[in-house]
Amino acid sequence: MNGISPIESLFKTFDETAAILQQELSCTYLDALAETAENLFQKQVLQENMSEMTKKRIEKKYEGIQLAGLSKEEIRKAYQLAILKGMKENVQPNHQMTPDSIGLFIAYLLGKFMKEKKEFALMDPAAGTGNLLLTVLNQWPDKKIAATGIEVDDLLLKLAWCGANLLEHSVQFYNQDALEPLLVDPVDAVVCDLPIGYYPNDARAAAFELQAEEGHSYAHFLFMEQSLKHTKPGGYLFFLIPNHLFESQGADKLHRYFQKHAYIQGVIGLPLSMFKNKQAAKSIFVLQKHGEKVQAPKQVFLANMPSMKEANALQSIMIKIDKWFLESKYK
Questions:
Q1: Fewer CB within 10 Å, N side or C side of the chain?
Q2: Residue 89 above 90 pLDDT?
Q3: Mean pLDDT of all residues in 244-267
């Protein structure tokens, strides 16, 4: 591949063909990226009303790309790079992607808590471009996972759907507000990079225990409640939360809600270096829904992660997690 990696080569194909389609279809780069991703999956140029010359240009770019010869992670990372480029060109506050390092660590945690299950149902109620959900699915090819993703933004959902196709993951996607009633069977586990902010639909928020006493409710509070409602008894939830969650207005109500419905398993602070400032810093928050024979851990796992670049320190926290499982979770 002329000295470039498979990821770089596939990214170049995504990028160049998306640029052609963007001009040809008079659409955004991200819209065009979804189109070219579907072309690669279907192994043909699906768009009509374009000149034969343009079609041949695109087909020429696709030549030599054999998805079957690439790992799922190589495909995901190349597609992710193209999505990130598109997001930089058309910045929107709700168009963000969970960083790889966080997704991989959440996948590691999910594997620890779900290690006894060979098959289970998994949901992401704020799927976005699907990167977090697809990262998790890529890490556990030996498990049969029935995955569901929910996303209100139709462009992000299209990107997620095309990404799942490229990776040959069977994911049921729903294009809707995840805080509206869901036609989703209860799942064994939830992963979610919580949307932070206020939920504008006060009438719908009134159906939740965690609605605000006055004014708009926090969307992230409601997402946690909705997720717990759609989790099986004893199921696990892995949330990416702001560090100031339990210091915000209504935190006392949130505490009471968790005491009533779930056991806190762990809170793992992410490195501050990953975020623009201290106020933007986040943690991974792990819950287990109450259920028959479900008990609280002897001790909640609390830790701060070192820099992802510090291999020895990262290994150390994984050893601590293993020890916690032996001493607090399974004894």
A1: C
A2: no
A3: 93
Q: What are φ and ψ of residue 236, in 5° steps?
A: -110, 150
* Mean of pLDDT values over 12-20: 97
Q: Give all domains of the chain, ordered by start, each with its CATH number.
A: 6-89 (1.10.150.470), 100-329 (3.40.50.150)
CA distances from 74 to 4, 35, 66, 68, 69 (A): 13, 19, 12, 11, 10
pLDDT tens digits for range 192-223 = 999 999 999 999 999 999 999 999 999 999 99
pLDDT bracket for residue 2 (50, 70, 90)? low
pLDDT digits (tens, 9 = 90+) for 26-36: 999 999 999 99
CA distance 85 to 93: 15
The H or E element containing residue 257 is helix 251-261
Question: Tokens standing for 25?
Answer: 């279809």
Which residues make beta-bridge pairs with 231?
Answer: 187
Phi and psi, residue 110, nearest 5°: -60, -40
pLDDT per residue over 40-57, tens digit each?
Answer: 999 999 999 888 999 999
Please say whether the beta carbons of 94 and 197 come within 8 A: no
If we measure between CA atoms, which residue out of 89, 99, 168 comes closest to residue 129? 99
Which residue has tokens 């932070």?
196
Which whole-number Å values give the CA distances from 60 to 9, 17, 185, 256, 305, in the listed order?
14, 10, 44, 60, 46
How many residues belong to the chain?
A: 331
CA 320 from chain centre, in angstroms, equals 25
Query: What pTM did the predictor assign?
Result: 0.94
Q: Round to the nearest angstrom and report the end-to-end CA distance of the chain.
A: 53
pLDDT at 91: 58
Beta-strand pair 144-150/301-304:
unpaired
Which residue in this structure is represented by tokens 């990416």?
240
